[in-house]
Amino acid sequence: MYIHISEWQIVFMVLSRFIQYLQYEKRFSPHTVTAYQNDLNQFFIYTVTCGNKTLDSDTIITKVEALTSDLTSITYNDIREWIVELMNHQQTAKTVNRKIATLRTFFKFLIRDGIINNNPASKIQAPKIPKRLPVIIAEEKIISLLSSDDIFENSFTGLRDKLIIELLFGTGIRLAELVGLKENDIDIHALTIKVLGKRNKERIIPINSELKHLLIAYQELKKNQYFDNNSLTFIVTSKGTSAYSKMIYLIVHKYLSHISTQDKKSPHVLRHSFATSLLNHGADLNAIKDLLGHANLSATQIYTHNSVERLKSIYKLAHPKA
Q1: What does the pLDDT look like over 207-217, one tens digit per residue?
Q2: Which of 41, 110, 255, 299 could be bridged to 115 by S-S, CB 3.0 to 4.6 A?
Q3: CA distances from 23 to 5, 32, 87, 103, 250 (A)
Q4: CATH of domain 139-318
C-alpha cells in the first residue's frame, strides 16, 4: 500500500518544507532525498495502520493527516515497533540504519522549527552493520580488458563503452557522477575532469594520457553522429539522449563478465578497484580520499584492508617459512 509523494506534499506542508531542507540546506543528492521521502512515507503508513494492509487509501490519508497534525504524539515505542517490523521482514542492517537516520534528521528538523521539543528517534539503537571488504577486480585484469582489440566493437557505442570503463577505473568516480558529467566538465588541455559529487561538492580529478586520447576520439565521433537530440550530458545513448544509471550498470556488467566470474560486477567495483590500485602503488591515503570525494578519512580506510590482504598473499607465496 503506497501513497504517492506528490499527494503527501499537497496535504502535509511540513513534509514539503523538510524535503526542501534536505535539498537546499543539507544539499543531499536527489537519490538520497527520494530515499528519505520513501522512508517517511513507509513510517507514517505503518504507524497509522500498525501493518494492517486491508485499509483503503482514503482512510490511510485521513489517519496520516491526523497524525502529522500532532507530531508530538509520535513516541520512541512507535519508532521501535517499526524498526522491529523491518528487521522481521529481513531488511538489511544498512537499510534499517538509513531509515533510522531519516527519522532522526526529520525530528531534528521539527525541533529546529519549534514543532516538537524532543527527538523520539534519538535513543533508537541502530543495528550493527557487518564489516565487508570492498569487492574489487585485479588491476591486471582490467588493464587486459581495456587493451583488448576484439572485445569492444569498432563503432560509436563500442568506443563509448570502453570510455565508460576507462573513466570509472581511471578516475574512481561514482555512477551518478559519471551520468551527470557534462561536456564542459572535460578539460583536455589541463588533463582534468570536474566532477559534481555528493552534496553538490565539486572536485577536480586528473586523467592519464591514454584516457585523454580516448576522450578526444569519443568527442570527435560523437560530433559525427549528428544526433537529432544533442544532449549536454557527456555520456549519451546510441540515439544521443542522456545516459542513465541502469544503462551504465548494464554496460559495466557486460564487459566485466569477460574478465571476472564474481557475482558483483558493478560500476562501484571499478571505483573500489581504482582506490585499491592507488593504495597498492603507494599513494597517500589522504590523496585517495580527495580523489574519491570522501567527506572523511574513515570512509577511505576500508581500502587498507584489501592492501593488507594482498600483502598477506604475497608473504605466503614468497616467504620460505610461510
Answers
A1: 999 999 999 99
A2: 110
A3: 15, 9, 29, 16, 29
A4: 1.10.443.10
233 pairs with which residues across the strands? 182
Taking only Cα atoms into account, the Rg of the chain, rounded to an integer number of angstroms, comes to 24
pTM of the full predicted structure?
Answer: 0.72
Length of the chain in residues, anyone?
Answer: 322
User: Does the pLDDT at position 228 exceed 60?
Assistant: yes
d(CA 207, CA 186): 10
Nearest to 72 by CA among 36, 39, 119, 38: 119
Residue 8: band (very low, low, confident or very high) from pLDDT cuts 50, 70, 90? very low
- At 55, is the pLDDT very low, low, confident or very high (cuts 50, 70, 90)? low
Active-site amino acid positions: 174, 198, 268, 271, 294, 303
Strand 202-206 to strand 186-187: parallel, antiparallel, or no bridges (unpaired)?
A: unpaired
Which element (helix H / strand E) includes 202?
Answer: strand 202-206
* 174 neighbors 272 (Cβ within 8 angstroms): no
- The stretch 29-46 carries a mean pLDDT of 88
Q: What do you get for the CA distance between the two ends of the chain, in Å? A: 59
- For residue 63, give every residue at least 6 positions away whose Cβ sits within 8 Å of its Cβ, in sequence order, or none: 48, 49, 55
Contact 187, 219 (CB under 8 A): no
What is the rounded CA–CA span in Å between residue 319 and residue 214?
42
Which of these, 178, 193, 185, lies nearest to 244 by C-alpha position?
A: 178
Rounded to an integer, what distance in angstroms lies between the CA atom of residue 24 and that of residue 185?
A: 23
**Is there a contact between 251 and 261 (Cβ–Cβ < 8 Å)?**
no
Q: Could you tell me the residue ranges of all domains in the chain?
A: 5-112, 139-318
Indicate whether 68 pLDDT > 60.
Answer: no
| CB-based contacts of 298, cutoff 8 Å, min separation 6 | none
| 279-314: pLDDT as tens digits | 888 899 999 999 999 988 888 888 877 666 666 766
**Placement of cell 544503462 in the chain:** 247
Using one digit for the tens of pLDDT, what is the confidence trace for 85-99? Answer: 999 988 899 899 999
As a whole number of angstroms, the distance between CA 157 and CA 154 comes to 8
